[in-house]
Batch of 2 targets.
Target 1
Amino acid sequence: MKIFKNKLFRIRILILLFLLQMTGSLLAQTAMINVSSRNKTSLNGQWQVILDPAGAGDWKQVWQEKKPQIKTDFVEYSFDGGPYLKVPGDFNSQLCELTYLEGTVWYKKQFENSLQPGKRLFLHFGAVNYIADVYLNGEKIGSHEGGFTPFQFEITNKVKTGTNTIVVKVNNHRKGNGIPGFGYDWFNYGGITRDVDLIETNTSYIEDYFIQMKKGSLNKVLGWVQLNGAQTAQNIKIKIPELNLVCKARTDEKGHAKVEFSSRFKLWSPETPKLYKVIVECENDVVTDSIGFRSIEVKGTKVLLNGKPIFLKAVNIHEENPYKKARAYSIDDARILLNAAKELRCNFVRLAHYPHSENMIREAEKMGLMVWNELPVYQHIQFSDSIVTRKLELMLNEMVRRDRNRCGVVVWSLSNETYPGTPNRNEALIDLTKKCKALDSTRLITHVINTQTYKDNSFNVWDPLYQYSDLIAINEYIGWYIPWQGKPSETKWQISLPDKPVFVSEFGGEALYGSNSGPTDEAAYWTEAYQEKIFVNQTEMFSTIPNLCGVCPWLLFDYRSLGRMNQQYQNGYNRKGLLSENGNKKKAWFIMRDFYNKK
Ligand code: GCB
């Protein structure tokens, strides 16, 4: 019996090791940063596709692209003769038969290759929602899970001279152990939603760097540079021509170099969003970036930007181009959303509820908008599944790595509306917070909570995660999901940690633009006046919140969400926008703009 048990145990271990090896070798790599400054060839454009709602492509092995060999042969798939989809772009908005697809689309693209000896080649994806299985010339090169962060594969030894074929299986099915999980209040746009590039490097190249102000300092940069593929120590230089600055360092045997330098920087702020041209050089690579310098910290109950208290005049934004009714990804899309935030007089944007494209982050920074960057850890996540905790860590790494040189990013938000009673939630998110701090200790870290109780016009705000957050971030929908229990100006607050700044990360209510008939004191008519009143009450109530450091209405534009099924008023849209999906200003928009004008 004992022998049998041992044998079974050994077989199990062997299977586990095999699986680990399989998945390990097929996982995508975390991407190199600052793709725009690399030697790259874009693979954007038209890709051939096979629509596979039945999920038949796997067993037919469409990536093999078989052709009939003899007269009696036939093959039951082909990319030829089928439609094309634009990359980057979500698939749902491009073909009407894909409007509601949560399933598989196979993408195919060919490229010519003439890689020279001594060079390396990487296939880089800005984002694919949600799972990507990537094949090159009929061989699987790896997979990536997570819809909003970049990944890459090194294909140096896999490409052939001449024509190469990439096939990507894209699947946006919801998964119980996915991040996000099954339920979320936004449109599940699937597809290759961001840029695809081939990046050529030398044998060793600059993979990553961190060039930001030391926490709390106004003139000292403390960072590092990480090389990939360097066999020996190398000299590193960081140059900022405008400041006549050259910082020299030398890498260790792992290709890592610490850098430290001081200067009289013109500090980045919403009023003066100053960015410097920064050149990072090693012996055989150079990348150029636009980097700003600022300090962000919490001191006592205040948020300080460059050492001075600042009120965060924020708005929530989903990554959807309202006019195209599609996933936003381009610089133009970013400008539409961010200009609307500026018009509202914001100095801060909460990019909900997942990492938006790098275009969004970079444009916001250029425009003087501080950014809240969030992981898609949304409501019901299966924290007790150990696969989920591994995915959390991977996503965190991918988000922080991509954006930690953006001074505009001031907050890492690690979760939205999770529940203290969910098994392993507290442990998993506390651990994630520590990991985030280890990756970047210069920014504020927070978790968004909505489990506060509201009774007798009094809020009781408590959650174990607040102890690990720099901000007490609260979502509250008084006036919409929960009726007022007293005068807004007499609201009381009991906050478990009274020494931290408080940020109202969501509040609001729905209105259909132009819906002005029906009793304006009844929610069920979706009138602009009802929504306006919510904003009047909320802005009055804000003065009762101790240590208030900012507010963030939910949200800028009405956006698509299929769970919103009131066909008279919602019609597949969450109507909490201050602007309609056509950009029309609702009455509540003016209340918010006036509130921000006075702040
Ligand atoms: C929330 C969520 C947000 C929803 C919003 C709503 O609390 O964080 O994602 O869309 O409420 O409209 O209900």
Note: DSSP finds eight helices and 36 strands in the chain.
Target 2
Amino acid sequence: MRMIEILDAGELRRARRSGALVADILATLRDRCTVGTNLLDVDRWAKAMIIDAGAQSCYVDYAPSFGRGPFGHYICTSVNDAVLHGRPHDQVLADGDLVSLDLAVSLDGIAADSAVSFLVGDTRPAESVALIETTRRALAAGIAAAGPGVRLGDVSHAIGTVLSGAGYPVNTEFGGHGIGSTMHQEPHVPNLGRPGRGYRLRPGLLLALEPWVMTDTDELVTAEDGWTLRSATGCRTAHSEHTIAITEDGAEVLTLAPR
Ligand code: MF3
Ligand code: CO
């Protein structure tokens, strides 16, 4: 039987450290991504920071049913029409590219997972800015809705309302998830849901909330690498993710970017 993990106080302290590490690495990588940066360098930098911190990659040996063989890399780098599970490859970032970085690591036995989308260089296409902002607002709405006694459907509904309210189609094949001793756990957190339905959240539960959208389609295609998921129409995409802990009085974001 698959179980929903509830963390005790000591595990929650470790989860905070895992979350801070993921946030720190992502913030550093985001700063380093400029015009001319190669995605393979981003992967090398991620690897070095994970090892340096004494943490383990949740990705390198990961071989789920939705990918071909082990992922083999340390971070997901998804550019423009690529939205999820972007496998780092020999590609140089250009002015105006929309990059999504998604990182999960395990430190002292607890995993944390976060993703950020941003534009490279000085060109800021309005539609891309809107896509990114929408996933951020959806994530904030999901976090604001989460708390003890709240139903999973309430969180999904809060996320989905922002995404569809902005006019984007929503794909429900991939969404958020429980996280703890491993990266992907029960429950699944779809980015659309019905209020008042589903599992009742409890203090000590860790969730990764991850709204993502594609401009004009809800259909994904898998790239030739067997991993990278792209929009079926070639349109641009965005993704925002935080790991949160349900506490006695609300939700605590564990992967907030350092100031
Ligand atoms: N961290 C991703 C998520 O947000 C999963 C990436 S799986 C990988 O759930 F194998 F592609 F890395
Ligand atoms: Co995730």
Note: The mean pLDDT is 97.
